[in-house]
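Much of our argument rests on the idea that a fold can be written as discrete symbols. The record that follows shows the chain in one-letter code together with its fold in token form.
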Amino acid sequence: MNRAIEQQKWALDREIVITRVYDAPRELVFEAWTNPEHIVRWFGPKGFELTTHEIDIRVGGRWRFDFVAQDGTLWGN
């Protein structure tokens, strides 16, 4: 099945909650999480590339991205 079609059929009622305290200004942490140019530099397993397809970080929004392993394996999220 085409991966894009498969992703469209995913349930959107799942939720992940991540909590961590950073010694940094709130605005800087928010920018690091919500700006696609920044998040690709630090989020995810070492050695993987991150491709953001859609990012809308707000209540009711969503973030669609892929991790790409060094061997080319695609992990859609």
Notes: The first helix runs from residue 3 to 8. The two ends are 16 Å apart (CA to CA). The mean pLDDT is 83. The beta strands are 49-55, 63-68, 74-76.
